[in-house]
């Protein structure tokens, strides 16, 4: 078994390795990823066709189409010759069906001059024989290919760079990163001439492409993978440390009232306050009058006397029985009422009334305490615990939480007194 000194050396090595890794954050999610459609080919094709189509109201005119055609000419052995008059008449469509039931993903055509058939893939592999069928089909949509000059027939297979290349010789490979390059180059030269909303939409589409084909997340992914490798290497050591923290927590659970009170200043811990520690219960701290018996709603410190159809309990508790309290260095302190009786309903109503909220909210806001206000949990705050000082640091933090909530407890006491009076009067 490793000694404390050996573990310290190991973790110095781990710290050095972690500090050597670059600081990276996860890139924001593009819209298609948020909608769960980041890999939906039909949506990619629809967006691509929209931005390539000069007749659409995006404000790019034919600039993106020209950028795409120029990039296709650059990266393939094909030569798509287009002229200004062609661009003025060009159409861009998706899901174009021929009489032979061949469906083209994207079709760009300048009537009687040239056409570009695009078969696109995001993740799925190409279907066996499908590209050949497109080439052999005498139609594009309802038009006959013979109406176009032989040199005006163009076929592009658009995919990830590492996807299997297309099998039909007529299809030329082009990759989604080329789309990104073409569009980004055009935006870089635009000098703000395009509509802001359209630029934002195009950038979001570009971000989706980059995310899915792993162009933009490489640094993030690589760093996370290196951290996981470190986790694997040091996992046994880390487990030993968590086991040590858990051992301290288990020993402290039953002794927490004494350990806590040793950290509270004498003038703060008065006879008004009581602790309760029982097996399978959270650590409870409450004021005199917050536990009321089932017979006459009279103050009691005995849990058993509060059970029934009238008895009431209200207390602060801290979640020392959760492993995270030591292993993650967290202390959660909350105001809670677990009894389901008429008095809790009345207390809940008064607690959330404007009159009492006007008193509570400034106190809670000043201390960063979450005002939940539901019938069981009324307020909550989680504190960081210095793990290097466990177990003492946990109870030092608990003492801080206790002191921070004393002014709030005084207001809660007044609310409960009013609620008890209302219930007894009825």
Question: Could you explain how this protein is built, in words?
Answer:
With 426 residues, this protein is α+β, with helices and mostly antiparallel strands. Helices cover 45% and strands 17% of the residues. The protein has helices at 4-20, 31-34, 41-52, 63-75, 84-89, 130-136, 176-188, 196-212, 218-253, 256-261, 324-327, 342-351, 354-367, 392-425; strands at residues 91-97, 103-110, 114-120, 139-140, 143-144, 153-159, 171-175, 273-276, 283-287, 291-292, 312-313, 315-318, 330-336, 370-371, 377-384. The strands form four sheets. The protein has a six-stranded antiparallel β-sheet. It has a five-stranded mixed β-sheet with strand order 1-2-3-6-7. The longest helix has 36 residues, at 218-253. The mean pLDDT is 84.
What would you say about this model in short?
The chain contains 14 helices and 15 strands.
Q: What are the defining features of this structure?
A:
alpha+beta; five-stranded mixed beta sheet; 15 strands; 45% helix; single chain; 426 residues; six-stranded antiparallel beta sheet; 14 helices
